[in-house]
Amino acid sequence: MDIYRGFADDTFRIDKNKNFTSLVQRFIHNGQLEVASHGFTHTGSPPHFAREFANLLEVEINERLAAIKNIFQKAGFPQPVGFAPPGWGIGKYLPAQLIKNNFKYMAASFDNLTDPSKSSQSHQAGIKNISMLKPEKYQGILNIPRNWDIAQGTIKRACGVIESGGILSIHAHMYPIGVNNEISEKNLTNLERLLNYLTANFKIDYFTFYGTYKTTYEL
User: Fold this and answer.
1) Which of 76, 92, 204, 219 is 20 to 30 A from residue 198's alpha carbon, by CA?
2) In order of start, what are the domains of the chain with their CATH numbers?
3) Tens of pLDDT along 36-79?
4) What's the whole-model pTM score?
5) Cα separations (Å) of 27 from 33, 35, 127?
């Protein structure tokens, strides 16, 4: 099956935008950036159109993961080891197929509402009843939670996550398509305010998601 059929408009294919890929390659080479996968089309079945992988069979998942890896290769990026499920849709087969395809972690849970405590679990989006504060295995693959929203997150919440022994993990989108936590001047100001406060009041380290994965297994 030609999985690319129907996608004649290559506007958002990362391997087709050479200026963009060159910029990203430079950041990767300098150790400033990790590139992970957020799906192939981000389009699933109704009624949850964004949940691309939620209702796919194993063979369909493997086809899309292979296509993703092929695009990364054509773009000159390292093969992806992280996966953020589109629309938070996990489905029955995705975790096992990610492991089969050499992915190391998922970022598949989000909660910016639950008050932080040492036992806080994620309930807002994605995987439920899993640690909101720390990486935890889910069906054999490590899940790295997201617990601070770039638009709605507060300094108080960030302090609560840190003081409860958690990692502070930022959640954002590139564009304001159905979301309000896009990379905008307002939201970046909120993030900058947070980082300035944390730098002044805590001894902090910064990690990519893959860096968090490696640190988890080095402890």
Assistant:
1) 219
2) 14-218 (3.20.110.20)
3) 999 998 887 777 788 999 999 999 999 999 999 999 999 999 99
4) 0.91
5) 5, 10, 31
